[in-house]
Design brief:
The structure holds two protein chains of two kinds. By secondary structure, chain A is an alpha+beta fold. Helices cover 39% and strands 13% of the residues of chain A. Chain A has helices at 22-29, 85-92, 102-115, 121-127, 138-164, and strands at residues 3-7, 10-14, 48-51, 54-57, 70-72. In chain A, helix 2 (85-92) packs across helix 5 (138-164). Classes of the chains: A alpha+beta, B alpha+beta. The structure holds FE2/S2 (inorganic) cluster (FES) (2 copies).
Chain lengths: 165, 747
């Protein structure tokens, strides 16, 4: 039976078995690369995506539970030619070594900053505690999220000014 | 322009275009040319970097008639930023923008054979070769333009893929290259651009691989989707010595999407149309398999004694003066240990295999496409030229992880499913249990202080394997050991080399009149081992620098000053002094439970210099340690990309913190039991320092020394030294887990 999924604002019909974790559907059926397989056990965060604005481990989430919900992956934050604030921040801070953990970090940080644009550095560390990086890129990841917070703030301010004008 | 060749050298390069071999012989240093008939390959002693193995310019740089320039490196991007650094050196010497260059990395059909991307050797080997080749290509282009325009080479300049004359006439690289033969041998001493005129080198050029990685581009072998691709999973034995008794495959083969199973000896795999179908089938197949599991593993709590008992022979790594400590000397004797530790890539190993007629292609995140090809061909008993291995990035590997094994798995399975690309992905538990580990080691130091307050004697004994069981031979591949007509692993041999392996950095760089360094060679390890970032240097430097600290205390000296007493090399001194000064060493007295530590090493004793000072907090109740700040200095020769050096060094410091504070593989008498991130904990954000500083010292005109592994050993020692400072106890056994810290501080 087909399952309807909304990913990055686009509707899809999926014919995977209902218990299939979202991660496999994103990667294999929808051919999205952002969410990564790291452990399949909910221990590393490399598969993190957003569901209705919340950070979710897609390796544990059966696709059948996601009908009608808004799924966002790193592809939904911008493109290589027009990167969104979170992506720009990671590029500007050169916050990657191998980069494998990075999309998961970005999605968790995005969820945090969308919910709380003023989240403190301590809150950022706390939020990221679910995500592992093996290359030791932590310091840069923290800097990049700080920069993303700034870029998002500026974008919001510009939007407010735009509306007021 | 000044950095272009003085005309004699240009002429030499011009000659090289016509008769490379002759020139290469003519370039030999006199001493060499006089040697008898048994001289090694003629270019071997002199050509810079990997040019010594592959001297032809067009192996490295090609220019098509339209002016498209392609750079070829046999090294692989491992997340260390090598692509960007290689493009920088090539762009610099070719006088083009890095964006004007296409880059081809490790591929047995397209690039030179540069062995492994390992040992921090990509800059010394590949970037050095490419820089020299690029400079010589530029000289050839200018020489050709000179001929065509009738203008002295010295009056021409290269810029933006053109050679330009003072009168404004210019010729494009493409049209010049069309009449040039770049299949000529490099010369050993072509002039390079001088640092004053650098446009691209020495700058923090952004990494070319990062934008796709943060926007969901195809960045890893995991992301490749070939037409008709199917998904495979292996079912590994439950323990290293297990033997497969029976496996009922019929029910598994009837599962949805399953295309079939592969069984060969102890090798078991399943293939399905979709990935999650393969995962489910793998689980079902694991349930259907029955194994015999002999108890073959030693008691892990007794590893030091086990390693000593496995000693196979003893090699003398270095010896000078007398090993006899004077009876009345102030002395210290201590034993240090390091457990098995894992690479633990965040993305488990993955590969794609495709059998097409008699040919096999494998996409792999191997560190060595050529040796991997050799091993796979041997395992499949097929001609090596029918196998092609193409590098595609993986998750960071930090040495020899499961990459080659996964490539071999994919190759074996692909043979059974010809015509369909087979994507094989390891599961987390498989990566943890089956990758080759960084070897457990024991280090014993006995040192004495002379009446002058300097070290007089240093006896050091290390029990270690070679740390390298990489492919080349098929027996290095896990599935090759598991198949019915399989290949046993080759036994490593003791060999004392300049780089060292298990004995890497066992010899102190410090001036000590009497020393003896012995390597008690352990040939067969209870668990499979291979290269983990920095090999033996991590543990040897930990033992060495911990002991240096104790000796400083015994001498009543400041640890930084004590190290400087024994360091003659000015670059070593600069690194030590820079780290100390930037940290504010020694600083004010610290409150209870806080401590500072310092450590230094020159990696391999001939590569990058690195020193680090750090401050940490030790909670006596919980045994928890948190490093608050680390300040380091590194000298890895001439800088190509300062941000790349900082990035890798920050990573090395943090990774070493993780190894040092948390990490050890655990096992019982049959099985490895650390099979996920819960049973093998690593550093998390909560324990990351507040600041990590890396000060990069530039050495314009000096050789590239490589960066990736310099921080591992000193960071471990600096943590141990800071714990000593904080709590007055010396920890000898890695890792410094909470339990060990609590036990040591005696709460
Ligand atoms: S892959 Fe989902 S948490 Fe690791
Ligand atoms: S950048 Fe490699 S795992 Fe985080």
């Amino acid at each position: 039976m087909a399952i309807r999924l909304t990913v990055n604002g686009v509707d899809h019909e999926i014919d995977s078995e209902p218990e299939t974790p979202l991660l496999y559907v994103l990667r294999d059926e929808l051919r999205l690369n952002g969410a990564k397989y790291g452990c399949g056990l909910g221990q590393c965060g490399s598969c993190t995506v957003m569901v209705d604005g919340q950070a979710v481990l897609s390796c544990l989430m059966p696709v059948t539970l996601l009908e009608g919900r808004e799924i966002t992956t790193v592809e939904g934050l911008g493109t290589i030619d027009a990167p969104g604030p979170m992506q720009r921040a990671f590029i500007e801070e050169q916050a990657a070594q191998c980069g494998y953990c990075i999309p998961g970090m970005m999605m968790r940080a995005q969820a945090l900053l969308q919910a709380d644009p003023e989240a403190s550095d301590a809150q950022v560390r706390e939020a990221l505690k679910w995500n592992l990086c093996r290359c030791g890129t932590h310091m840069r990841i923290l800097r990049a999220v700080g920069r993303a917070r700034e870029l998002m703030r500026q974008a919001n301010a510009a939007a407010v000014v735009g509306r007021a004008g | 322009m000044t950095e272009h060749a003085p005309s004699a050298l240009t002429r030499r390069a011009f000659l090289a275009a016509g008769s490379g071999l002759v020139v290469s012989f003519a370039m030999l240093p006199p001493a060499f040319a006089q040697e008898g008939g048994s001289a090694p390959a003629p270019w071997e002693p002199k050509l810079p970097g990997s040019l010594s193995n592959d001297p032809f310019l067009d192996s490295w740089i090609r220019i098509d008639p339209q002016g498209g320039i392609t750079v070829h490196t046999g090294k692989a991007e491992l997340g260390q930023g090598i692509k960007t650094a290689v493009l920088q050196v090539a762009a610099e010497e070719l006088e083009v923008d890095p964006h004007d260059l296409a880059l081809v990395t490790a591929d047995t059909s397209r690039t030179p054979n540069e062995g492994y991307t390992a040992g921090s050797m990509s800059m010394p080997n590949s970037a050095t070769a490419i820089r020299n080749a690029a400079a010589q290509v530029r000289i050839l282009l200018i020489t050709e333009a000179s001929r065509r325009l009738g203008i002295q080479p010295g009056a021409l300049r290269a810029e933006s893929r053109r050679v330009i004359a003072p009168d404004g006439r210019s010729l494009g690289y493409g049209e010049l290259a069309a009449s040039l033969d770049l299949h000529v041998e490099a010369v050993p001493d072509a002039p390079l651009k001088r640092p004053e005129s650098f446009r691209v080198m020495g700058r923090p050029v952004p990494r070319v691989d990062i934008p796709p990685k943060v926007t969901g581009g195809v960045a890893y072998v995991h992301d490749l989707r070939l037409d008709g691709m199917v998904h495979a999973r292996v079912v590994r034995p439950p323990s290293p010595a297990a033997r497969l008794l029976t496996a009922e495959t019929a029910a598994v083969e009837a599962m949805p999407g399953v295309l079939g199973t592969v069984r060969d000896g102890n090798f078991l795999a399943v293939v399905a149309e979709r990935e999650f179908q393969a995962v489910k089938a793998m689980r079902a197949l694991a349930d259907a398999a029955r194994w015999e599991e002999p108890a073959t593993l030693p008691d892990m709590t007794d590893m030091p004694a086990v390693l000593r008992s496995l000693e196979h022979e003893v090699g003398t790594v270095a010896e000078s003066g007398s090993p006899q400590l004077p009876a009345d000397a102030r002395r210290i004797k201590a034993t240090f240990t390091r457990p098995y530790q894992i690479h633990g890539s965040i993305g488990p190993s993955c590969a794609i295999g495709l059998t097409d007629g008699d040919d096999l292609t494998v996409w792999s995140h191997t560190q060595g496409v050529y040796p991997d090809r050799q091993a796979i061909a041997e395992m499949l008993r097929m001609p090596v030229e029918r196998v092609r291995v193409i590098h595609a990035e993986g998750s960071g590997c930090y040495g020899h992880n499961g990459a080659d094994d996964a490539a071999a798995d994919a190759a074996l399975i692909a043979r059974a499913f010809p015509g369909r690309p087979v994507r094989l992905q390891w599961m987390r538990e498989q990566e943890h249990a089956w990758e080759p580990y960084g070897p457990a080691m024991v280090m014993e130091v006995e040192a004495a202080l002379g009446p002058d307050g300097r070290l007089s004697h240093w006896n050091y004994d290390v029990w270690s394997n070679t740390h390298t069981t990489r492919p080349g031979p098929a027996g290095a591949l896990l599935p090759a050991r598991h198949i019915a007509d399989g290949f046993p692993p080759e036994l490593p041999q003791l060999s004392i080399t300049r780089s060292g392996s298990g004995d890497r950095n066992a010899v102190p760089l410090y001036t000590i009149p009497n020393k003896r360094i012995l390597w008690h060679f352990v040939r067969e390890m209870p668990l499979r081992v291979s290269a983990l970032r920095s090999l033996g240097a991590y543990a040897n430097i930990f033992a060495l620098e911990s002991t240096m600290d104790e000796m400083a205390i015994a001498a009543g000296a400041d640890p930084v000053e004590f190290r400087l007493r024994h360091l003659d090399d000015p670059r070593a001194r600069t690194v030590v002094e820079t780290a100390a000064a930037r940290f504010g060493w020694p600083g004010e007295a610290l409150p209870q439970g806080r401590g500072r530590g310092f450590a230094f090493a020159r990696y391999k004793n001939y590569a990058a210099y690195f020193a680090v000072a750090l401050e940490l907090e030790l909670d006596r109740e919980s045994g928890n340690i948190r490093v608050q700040r680390a300040v380091s200095a590194i000298d890895s020769g001439e800088i190509v990309n300062p941000d790349g050096i900082r990035n890798q060094t920050e990573g090395g410091i943090i990774q070493s913190m993780s190894w040092t504070l948390y990490e050890q593989a655990v096992f019982d008498s049959r099985r490895v039991t650390s099979i996920d991130w819960a049973s093998y904990p690593v550093l998390r954000f909560a324990s990351v320092p507040s600041t990590v500083e890396v000060h990069v010292i530039d050495r314009p005109g000096e050789p590239f020394l490589g960066t990736g592994e310099a921080a591992q050993g000193p960071t471990a020692a600096a943590i141990g030294n800071a714990i000593r400072d904080a709590a007055g106890v010396r920890l000898h056994d890695l890792p410094f887990t909470r339990d060990r810290v609590r036990a040591a501080v005696g709460v």
